[in-house]
Write a structure and sequence with these properties.
seven-stranded mixed β-sheet, about 35% helix, elongated, disordered N terminus
């Protein structure tokens, strides 16, 4: 190559280069031996020589004069082939084509082994720095295959080191060492050529890499390598003339633990870039340590000043000690220092750093995905952050959260930021706190979030706090990290500048629309179903700035089933929609403002207002704009938050004034179209419409005019057996039917007091108290026009019944009906009561009119409860009166029966014969012979009997506590009657013994003989004869008679009373005739069973001692002697006596009991 072919500019660069400026006649051929010749002559360098040939550097070596070549031996090259693919291809593939630009890397690597001056010998004790012919260049991207604009064998000054060549440090016997003379390649031999020296080395010298790679190879800066960001890497590998002062790992310990943890997160790029810029310097040249003057000031890329001070023993950089200088790189130099070079206040602890450090990375990531990073990095605004940890978020799962970057996710995350600094001591149960979420449905107002606090002590350290139901959990407040382990201390919250952090057990979902909010509450489902059935659902769902008041399911029943049925019917959509809108306030009223506010009326979406009343006990009541008088509802403040406001609960439904509930509407709801048709045909259409009666309407009671009306409405099914064609042809009958079912009711005066919550339950058209009687429009024309209501507690027919007062039809079926439901009108009062049967006007036959039972308007159910002792005493005394009455009426019959039972065969031909012979012999007083014992014993006998009967009934009730009704069945009454005979027998047996002896004396062979003067004489004789055993002879037979007899006795009495009780009446209200019939029937039933054991009892008690050994012996001998018919002796007198005597018994009991009830 000739000199004149080189560009003039290139010659200037070569002359200016410090590495080339010492060339002595660089292109002269005067030397006979060159470096190439020396390499060729030494077999240790065949590989190197081949590489120089392939890189076209042979001319360069031949033309250099005064140079140094650090030549890798064949062994060094062979070892390097394992690490360098390029060298391997070049050496092993003869056909490998080397384009100049593509193989620039190979030439630069070989230039790094060349010095443009001769190093006569290596240093012995120190380390010296030399300048190679390697000028690092920024790599072409991608490299071009075009030939370079200069000869490839010439090094080109310039590049990434500010026009300076790369340095190479040499120590005693080692080449390429670090600043401390460590490492590098061993010099294995030396040789001299005419144009320089050759030092054979044990390994290939790798040119320094860019700073990014150099840093990555430094073990002492592993923390920085751990947190290195792409931006930091780009700065390190692409910035020329870069001087870096990097802190070693221990220097980072000076950071706040939260800051250090934050730097390890994926969101710390800004802080990391700032830190690196504060340690990076780019000047006109690379700042090696040997360029530092005694005091040097450098400006970093971050704008800070580095003060470098050099002493004989130390180099300090802004107070940090330079622990390792001059780590060479292709684009600069790296210095290691022992401290961070960060000015105070450069790094601020933000909430984001705490969140990341405290294991809330997912929460932070989600915030950044919706551009809400400012909320956790703005230290000027006061926020309270509710943060779920990564563990909580992992349990939640991605599918449970809105999509990343979505508006729904943004709403959810904003709901976790409370406005203000809410430390635990400021929180109280039930508070509503404003959040960073601003809802369109709240007219731009901030959405609120509920707070729950378990402790009433606001200063308690053990306070448990919940936000929107999410519990606060133990959260790290201080973090201490050591090489061995980590320790976390927990507290309720973490304070970060103006921000407070709480850690919660789950993400908090912001409120949804009011209908979706109320949907999980089953007790609100009926009202929600009504909403969804109308066209107002979307309005109530989306109407902004509203408070929805939702009644409980029971409110529909409390409203009255007919009113509910009307509102939910297909023909009442407009009424229902007005009712629904009346429950939506056109304002947001949270619980605090409702309890403590001064406003009393609030507008609704329906258009009319509702009124709030606040009681002293804290209760809240609401009055609608319409409905009936006294309609109110209790408000239960719930603060169920929605995206349009809030939801509270009500006890009752509110009826606005736009809804007019007429009787006609309620009749339709009661399935009473037939009754409506009858009313219209009878001229009562005005009642259905809720208007005044037409002109000319006649009524015998002027007080009824202007009154509200309650219509008893039979269902259409109640008319299935009625001949409607015939009925429609009889106007008077139609009118009578309507008048029988129409109860006038005067409008109530004023509103009911809300001090009593029972006043809220006022859905009945009229009070349905037990035994309450009401006059109908027919009452002025018929004594049977009144209606009476009664409450039945029977399991099969529990509920109210209504009947015509005093009526007694066939089994009572035609004159009473069950109340099925009712509804109240909003016109002038009253309403509709749905019944299951038509009440035909009652016209009784003469036999029912005579002595017909009457119904007292005072129900025994309403009597004050009396003590059991008083009742027992009254039962005892009443029983005594009943027994006295029975003896007076029945003794002649009993005497006749006894004489027939005890007389021998042929003495009497029958009952009349007994009476005739007794009257002939003893006169009329003879018929009352033996009456003294029963008179003396009757009071205790009947008193004990009736007392025992009441006690037995109470015993049966006590033994059956799970029974559904307090009314005893017939079988239970019979058992009570049988049990009553047990204690009664103790008194009855001796009385019966004395009575029988007195009744039988003077008959048979003793005719005319009077052995005993009276009952005392009988008792003395019996005691002398056999003691107490003789007096109580026949006790077993008495029990055998009275046990079954009493069972039939009391059961028959109760059954008969029930049969005689009119519909809607009580057995206690039966009149004298009914009592006589029931008592007589009871006696007949008893003696129908008691005659056989009574015959045996009489014979045992009248026979001489030893005649019979017992009841069975007496029965056997009686049948053997007189036949089975003998067991029925006295049946006629007994039956004749049974009815009057026992009718007198019960008459005496009931009369005396009624008298005593008036005084006790």
């Amino acid at each position: 190559m000739r000199l004149h072919l080189l560009p003039a500019a290139l010659l200037i660069l070569l002359s200016a280069s410090p590495a080339l400026s010492s060339l002595q006649s660089p292109f002269t051929n005067t030397l006979s031996t060159t470096l190439v010749d020396a390499l060729s002559n030494d077999p240790n360098y065949t590989s190197l020589l081949r590489l120089l040939q392939r890189a076209r550097l042979i001319p360069t070596l031949n033309k250099l004069n005064g140079s140094t070549l650090f030549a890798p031996t064949n062994d060094a090259v062979r070892q390097h082939l394992h690490e360098n693919d390029l060298w391997r291809f070049v050496l092993r593939d003869d056909y490998f084509v080397l384009n100049d630009n593509v193989q620039e890397q190979l030439r630069q690597q070989l230039f790094y082994h060349l010095l443009n001056y001769t190093v006569p010998e290596l240093p012995k004790d120190d380390t010296r720095t030399h300048y190679t012919l390697h000028y690092p260049q920024a790599p072409a991207d991608p490299p071009s295959r075009d030939p370079p604009p200069y000869p490839p064998w010439l090094p080109i000054p310039g590049g990434t080191l500010g026009g300076k060549p790369q340095r190479l440090r040499v120590s005693a016997g080692d080449v390429g060492v670090d600043a401390f003379g460590k490492g590098g390649a061993k010099v294995v031999n030396t040789s001299t050529a005419g144009n320089g020296n050759i030092y054979g080395i044990s390994k290939v010298l790798e040119p320094p890499l860019d700073l990014a790679k150099v840093v990555s190879h430094q073990s002492s800066v592993s923390f920085l390598n751990k947190v290195l960001t792409p931006a930091m890497t780009k700065l390190l590998n692409s910035t020329s003339k870069l001087t870096i002062f990097l802190p070693v790992d221990s220097a980072w310990d000076a950071l706040d633990p939260y800051e250090r943890l934050y730097l390890e997160s994926e969101y710390s790029a800004n802080d990391l870039n700032r830190i690196l810029n504060l340690h990076a310097v780019v000047e006109e040249g690379v700042e090696y340590s040997d360029t530092f003057e005694e005091e040097t000031n450098l400006t970093t890329l971050g704008g800070s000043k580095l003060e470098i001070k050099v002493s004989a023993t130390n180099i300090s950089v802004s107070g940090a000690h330079l622990v390792e200088p001059d780590i060479l790189a292709s684009n600069g130099v790296l210095h290691l220092v022992d401290s961070l070079l960060i000015p105070p206040g450069t790094l601020q602890l933000t909430p984001e750093k705490y969140l990341l450090a405290l294991n809330c990375t997912t929460f932070v990531s989600l915030l950044h995905s919706v551009d809400l990073g400012a909320l956790i990095n703005n230290t000027d605004v006061k926020y309270t952050i509710l943060a779920p940890s990564d563990d909580v978020m992992s349990l939640q799962g991605d599918k449970e959260l809105p999509e990343r970057g979505s508006d729904d996710l943004k709403r959810l995350l904003q709901y976790h930021f409370l406005l203000g600094d809410w430390t635990p001591d400021k929180l109280a149960d039930g508070m509503l706190l404003e959040t960073a979420l601003e809802e369109d449905g709240l007219a731009g107002r901030s959405q609120v979030l509920s707070v729950g606090v378990s402790s009433d002590d606001r200063k308690s350290a053990e306070k448990s706090v919940r936000f929107a139901g999410a519990k606060t959990i133990g959260n790290p407040s201080e973090l201490f990290i050591s090489a061995v382990d980590s320790y976390i201390a927990y507290s309720l919250s973490v304070k970060v500048n103006n921000t407070l952090l709480y850690f919660i057990s789950r993400p908090i979902v912001p409120p949804v629309d009011p209908l979706q909010t109320a949907l999980p509450f089953l007790d609100l489902s009926s009202f929600l179903a009504a909403i969804f059935s109308t066209s107002q659902a979307e309005i109530l769902r989306k109407a902004p700035h509203t408070s929805l008041l939702i009644p409980h399911n029971s409110a529909f029943k409390r409203l009255g089933l007919l009113v509910s049925a009307h509102l939910l019917g297909t023909s009442a959509k407009q009424d229902l929609e007005n009712v629904l809108l009346h429950h939506a306030l056109d304002t947001i009223e949270y619980g605090e403002s409702l309890r403590n506010g001064s406003q009393h009326t609030f507008p609704t979406l329906e258009g009319s207002d509702i009124r709030f009343d606040r009681l002293k006990n804290g209760s809240l009541y609401i009055s609608p704009s319409g409905g009936w008088t006294g309609m109110q509802s209790e408000l239960f403040v719930k603060d169920l938050l929605t995206n349009t406001g809030v939801v509270h609960e009500l006890s009752d439904i509110l009826i606005p004034r736009s809804v007019n509930l007429t009787i006609g509407k309620l009749v339709k709801a009661a399935q009473g179209s037939t009754m409506a048709s009858i009313a219209v045909k009878a001229g009562f259409e005005w009642v259905l419409n809720g208007t005044a009666p037409p002109e000319g309407f006649s009524s015998t009671d002027e007080a009824f005019m202007g009154a509200g009306w309650t219509l008893l409405c039979p269902t259409d099914n109640a008319f299935k057996d009625v001949n409607l064609t015939q009925l429609y042809a009889e106007p008077d009958a139609l009118r009578a039917i309507v008048e029988q079912h129409l109860i006038p009711a005067q409008p109530s005066e004023g509103e009911s007091s809300i001090d009593n919550t029972d006043a809220l339950y006022n859905n009945q058209p009229l009070p349905l108290d037990d035994s309450t009687a009401y006059s109908t429009l027919l009452s002025s024309k018929s004594v049977y026009g009144d209606l009476v209501f009664r409450w039945r507690d029977d399991p099969e027919s529990k509920g109210y019944i209504v009947g015509i007062k005093g009526a007694r039809g066939t089994d009572g079926n035609a004159d009473w009906a069950r109340v099925l439901s009712w509804g109240r009108s909003t016109t002038a009062g009253g309403g509709v009561i749905q019944i299951d049967r038509l009440l035909q006007p009652y016209n009784p036959p003469w036999w029912i009119s005579y002595g017909a039972p009457t119904i007292s308007s005072e129900s025994p159910v309403t009597e004050e409860p009396r003590s059991s002792a008083v009742e027992s005493a009254k039962a005892f005394i009443a029983g005594g009166f009943g027994g006295l009455s029975a003896v007076l009426v029945g003794h002649p019959f009993d005497l006749t029966k006894t004489r027939l039972q005890t007389a021998g065969p042929g003495v009497y031909t029958g009952a009349l014969d007994v009476v005739k012979k007794t009257l002939a012999r003893d006169g009329i007083t003879g018929m009352y012979r033996g009456m003294v014992p029963p008179l003396l014993g009757v009071t205790p006998i009947f008193a004990v009997s009736f007392w025992a009967y009441d006690a037995s009934k109470n015993l049966i009730l006590a033994l059956t506590p799970q029974r559904s009704s307090q009314t005893l069945s017939i079988s239970e009454l019979a058992v009570a009657g049988f049990l009553s005979a047990v204690p009664t027998t103790i008194v009855t047996a001796p009385v019966e013994r004395a009575k029988v002896i007195l009744q039988t004396q003077g008959q048979g062979k003793d005719a005319g003989e009077k052995r005993y003067k009276g009952v005392v004489d009988v008792v003395k004789h019996l005691y002398r004869e056999g003691g107490m055993r003789s007096i109580f002879r026949g006790t077993g037979a008495t029990l055998a008679r009275d046990g079954p007899g009493s069972a039939a006795y009391f059961a028959a009495y109760e059954v008969t009373k029930r049969m005689l009780t009119p519909a809607g009446s009580s057995p206690a209200d039966l009149n004298l005739g009914a009592i006589i019939v029931a008592g007589g029937s009871a006696g007949v039933a008893m003696w129908a069973l008691a005659i056989p054991p009574d015959v045996l009892k009489s014979r045992i008690q009248s026979a001489p001692e030893g005649t019979y050994s017992g009841l069975l012996d007496c029965a056997r001998k009686t049948i053997a002697q007189d036949g089975v018919r003998a067991l029925w002796k006295g049946f006629g007198p007994a039956m004749a006596r049974a009815f009057p005597a026992n009718a007198a018994t019960f008459l005496g009991v009931e009369a005396s009991r009624t008298l005593m009830d008036k005084f006790f």
